[in-house]
Amino acid sequence: MFRRIAVASLVVVAGAAAAAAQQPTPLFNTPPSIPSPLAPPPAAPLPDQTLSAQPASPGRVFCDQTVTSQPADPASVPERYRPLVGIFSDADWTPQLCAALVVENITADGTATITYAFGPIASGSKVAGGVLHGTGIVKDGALLFQNSDGSQYSFQPFYSDLAGRWTNPKGQTYEAIFKRAF
């Protein structure tokens, strides 16, 4: 009887140690002094272009927003841009705000066609969300675009994912890892 209890205890301890070892370590820390935005500005393209909100239609749901965009076949994209093309999601800029990015295509000159979705992390939240379609550009290995309010976005390959950085017009910077969704 004592032996069974000892073996069961070892199994529980070993399982707890394995679970603790699998916990992810945060890659970026946002300073606690940065306030969370109530309604984030949407992503946008280069200054001379505008993004347009698209009506919801059947598709995948990210951040309580329906997204219908799909990436191009990787074989049709120049090889140097392939790590940036795809569906990237499960990112949270703040504890209240999530985001997803679909990089639909990148042409030989580095012009990217994108869809950006943002919204609340929890259902019933008062954080506004939306789905925006636009363009960006790849420069020095990073996908860049900016919003009409001056917010700037930068995404760089991070293993199979993207490391994203959002700087709002007040100069506050948020970082998140966007996980490849396919």
Structure, described:
- With 182 residues, this protein is mainly beta.
- It has one domain (27-180): Lipocalin (Beta Barrel), CATH 2.40.128.
- Helix content is 11%, strand content 40%.
- The protein is built from one helix and eleven strands, in the order αβββββββββββ.
- It has one helix at residues 2-21, and strands at residues 52-53, 60-62, 65-67, 86-92, 97-106, 111-120, 130-139, 142-146, 152-158, 161-167, 173-180.
- Strands 4-5-6-7-8-9-10-11 form an eight-stranded antiparallel β-barrel. Strands 2-3 form a two-stranded antiparallel sheet.
- A hairpin with a 2-residue loop joins β9 and β10 (161-167).
- Mean pLDDT is 75; it is low at 1-57.
Q: How does the SSE layout of this entry go?
A:
Layout: H1 2-21, E1 52-53, E2 60-62, E3 65-67, E4 86-92, E5 97-106, E6 111-120, E7 130-139, E8 142-146, E9 152-158, E10 161-167, E11 173-180
Antiparallel strand pairs: 1-7, 2-3, 4-5, 4-11, 5-6, 6-7, 7-8, 8-9, 9-10, 10-11
**CATH-derived architecture:** Beta Barrel
Number of strands: 11
CATH class: Mainly Beta
Main sheet makeup: 8 strands, antiparallel, barrel
The string of secondary-structure elements, in order, is: HEEEEEEEEEEE
| Residues in helix, % | 10-25%
Name the beta content range.
Answer: 35-45%
Key features of this structure:
182 residues, mainly beta, Lipocalin, 8-stranded antiparallel β-barrel, 1 helix, 11 strands
